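Appendix B. Extra example for self-study. Work through it before the problem class; the solution is given directly after the inputs so you can check yourself.
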Amino acid sequence: NAPPPPGPPRFKGTKLVHDRAHPWKPLKRGDERGPCPGMNTLASHGYISRDGVASPSEMITAVQEGFNMENKLAIFVTYMAHLMNGNLVTDKLSIGGKTKKTGPNPPAPAHAGGFNVHGTFEGDAGMTRADAFFGDNHSFNQTLFDKFVDFSNRYGDGFYNLTVAGELRFQRLQDSIATNPEFSFKNVRFPTAYAESVFPINFFVDGRKKEKKLDMDSARSFFKDMRFPPDFFRSAMPIGSEGINEVFAMHPFLPGGNVDGKVNNFVVDPTAGDLTKPCVLYDDILNTVKGLYPNPTGLLRRNLIKNLHHFYSGFAAILGEECVEKFPYGQ
Ligand code: HEM
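Solution. Structure tokens for the complete assembly:
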């Protein structure tokens, strides 16, 4: 019931992905969409089920096919999401909110709540999504997108590039420090935020273009309309978080959050995971999973064991070769 993840695709070059077999379609009632513009777009073009509910294997195949995401990164990120937000018995995960389509509820405190659940994968200081504190953590936010455009004009001559990514990432952190009394930025949220800052450059720029910079019409198409630009070609090679270290180096930042429910009260958490402590990150993810599933039995337990191993295989290849695999539910 929890099959091994797909391997890399055979053809690894660029190709037309906005093709006849994958037309964009508007949302239907009950379709799930959420904070990830990449997955939203894949759903709206039918690379995963258009209702936004799919298995991890389907999601990995889709990000490889539609965006040329590198296999191990796709495995790492997808299983991380699935372990925290998916249904491990039915092997289904929602890219948006909680839905019956993922199957019967798991035993509490597990929730199978989908990508939208705050504080698992989804976190603060996103580029085009507001912090959960302000109410809606998953919908396209026009005010924030205006800021994305403004920064692209100021630092990128009208395009989103690595310089813009570095400036906007830092500004979004400052915004959250100044306005969100519950701002948190550590562990899982640390690498995901920096990675997501380079994704528009690595994945949303047409694979035939030489220059790695994203025009604003294409940006709006992905972030807002969940739609490939006309005639869109995917990346010319399998790609992941390339550029993340340059973005970080522009404005280095330590993990932490606002404390005591006060804005402008950011305190560094020296025990927390960031880009330099992959094994702390691994432990944090395992602790979150153990918190969700304190006493699993039967198929649930067997699938936890399998999914944790799939997750580790991707995580170790990308970040944590030196982190020893752990087996909280046995082997
Ligand atoms: C954000 C999941 C692949 C682009 C997110 C978020 C989640 C997520 C949960 C919300 C995090 C947050 O900002 O709070 C996943 C999973 C993937 C995946 C499980 C499986 C491989 C991709 C791909 C792309 C992409 C292939 C690009 C084509 C983005 C971007 C954001 C994001 C740009 C940030 C949105 C913003 O800050 O406004 N993703 N994602 N993701 N994802 Fe994905």
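Self-check: DSSP finds ten helices and seven strands in the chain. If your reasoning did not lead you there, revisit section 3.
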